[in-house]
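Forum: Protein Structure Q&A
Topic: Joint prediction for protein chains with partners

I've read a bunch of threads here and the consensus seems to be that you should model interacting components together rather than docking separate models afterwards. I'd like to see that in practice. Below is the full input, 734 residues plus whatever partners are listed. Could one of the regulars post the assembled result?
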Amino acid sequence: MTADILFQVLVSGLLIGLIYALVAVGLTLIFGVMDIVNFAHGEFLMLGMYASFWAFALFAIDPIVALPLTALLLFAVGVIVYQTVIRRILKAPMLSQIFATFGLMILLRGLAQFFWKPDHRLIPHSLVSGNVAFGPVQFGLPQFVAALGAVGVTGALWMFLHRTRLGTALEATAIDREAATLMGIDGQKMFALAWGIGAACAGLAGGLIATFFPIFPEVGSNFILIAFVVVVLGGFGSVTGAFLAGIIVGLIEVLGGFLVGPEYKTAIVLSLLLIVLLVRPRGLLGKA
Amino acid sequence: MRFAPAITEPTRLSKANAATRRQTIKRMLAAAALLTTTALTGIGFGAAPAHAEDEIRIGVIYPLTGAAASTGVELKAAAELAAAIVNKEIPAPPGLIAGVGLPNLKGAKIKLIFGDHQGNPQVGATEAERLITSEKVVALTGAYFSNVTATASQVAERYGVPFLNGESSSASLTQRKFKWFFRTTPHDDLFVGNFFTFLGDMEKKTGDKLRNIALFNENTLWGNETTKLQVKLSEEQKFTIAEKILYPAKTTQMTSEVQRIKAAAPAVIMQSSYLGDAILSMKTYKELGFLPKMLLANDAGFNDSEFLKTMGKDGEFVISREVWALDQAERNPLIKQVNDLMKQRAGVNFNGNSARAFTGIAVLADALDRAGSTKPDAIREALQKTDIPASGLIMPWKGVKFDASGQNELGTGIIVQVQGGQYVTVWPFDVATKPVVYPMPAWDGR
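Posted by a regular:
Agreed with the consensus. Here's the joint model:
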């Protein structure tokens, strides 16, 4: 095996890893703020992909240009889901919470299949298409742009959480809801905001991968397992942790698949997760 | 685990207000759940158990939701078309076996009761059980996925109900010594064997060496069995396996897989994929700038009409095995006539999968009519005596006639290539309508 191939594999792993990171940050944000696991997160991704698809198919808007719209739309979906479903189960037993988001997952999938048919769809040509080659290493421009977008969005989210008043309020709610309420922060608003931002992240990820991944009602299920692994590995609720963990999972999956055998790629990732949990149960950057 | 009510205390709202709200929400959720179930199972409200005397109920199990739902919906449309022809709801082209109807059953009509297996063998078995015990079907057909056909037909075997499989190609299905299992389609042994014969023929034609192959198969029952057989045939016929990969079909990336194949540089790839992974692998070949001289696809995802529609010109020149191609209409006028009916009803052309689903129902109806009864034993006996000539079918087969294992011994396969956005027959050379485009043009040379 030559160094070229190894380098190529690492680049591919990094690119897909950044996408995993973006899918996972939304999930970890929601969990961090309110301790609810959102099983419908993959479906937010799916909705983001369909939003891009329809923007392209009906109005000839490129997925990349449509990103702000996709983000806004999914933000709205997140807030609506919070207001209609989640707000009512905040104090419910954990099992009810799990089944509520699980039910939402099945509902969204069913609706997508009902209205948009179970077909696989692709966006045939976008602003970003074709390949980029750096010497012997080559990769698809869509994948590259998606990875860049993932870095940008995660960076922006980090800045928002740490450098703005609203973001700090969200962090405060995550750390201690009671104390935050005493400081005059409206918990309900913060929760709605977390769902909006979390869904928007998934939607953006959907919009970015819609340039190269087939779009179908079940597409969320391909990504959600990996997203959970990333969240746990990074530490529940840690955005930076999810970002790092996403990259690690992408690299390990592609590299491990290449070296050991692709049939083991998921097993390799899950073994890594088990080892990390044994050594460091709270994940890479999780708070104890 | 606690069994507390979902909401233990109303928070800020007044009690009464909260109660009505909760009721509204509950009702909305119930309605939503009902809607979902209806949409998911594809069974409408009309599936009440009351049935007329002259109605022969046949259970049809397909993946109507889940990753393969788009294929399942086409299979369902094909089965419904066949039933409509048998029931004489639409006039049949002369000569078609299904057009005979059910004269020996005094004009009784068949009614298809659909079950959705979601691509899951356990669900498939449960659906088979439901169709037999509560829907009282007299025979079962389906289920496209070989692993689901395996479990669903086990249930049928246990209850002693005939199971006619039209489109699952895993060879082992007819090696189980089942009494009640019949299969019209040829199985993988024949298809996979054809590829090796084809490669031999191509070597003679082009003078190139095509003995260095990569096996690239998904890792359920179908992919595993295909791999085993390919390895066996490679050894027997002196082919070298440069790389052998079994990959998980539900995946987010196929870079590691394609990278490994690229590093092994085979002349030919033999690939077995379902739709989502077929699309993703083609995208990845292109992304990594790699193609072999020939890509030999093992039907399934590559032959789904969605594949050609979504891939456009990136799907060109893939070679696949088929049981059916529209261009064979040049040799059999029934193909065009029945395809026109399908296009009118469902808006799509037949493909290898839906044509086989159609044929499955047609063969079952033929047996029902000859049995002249809906007793399982009579149907089974009639199936065993099936002898349908090629001229009554829309398949390029020599006919339908079951051997002792329940396998149709008159089935044959063809090899097709995507040219100009559709599959055309390229092998056997004597039935080919177009020559093979060889080698596959590189991505940047198109």
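Residues 23-115+139-216+237-243 of chain A form one domain.
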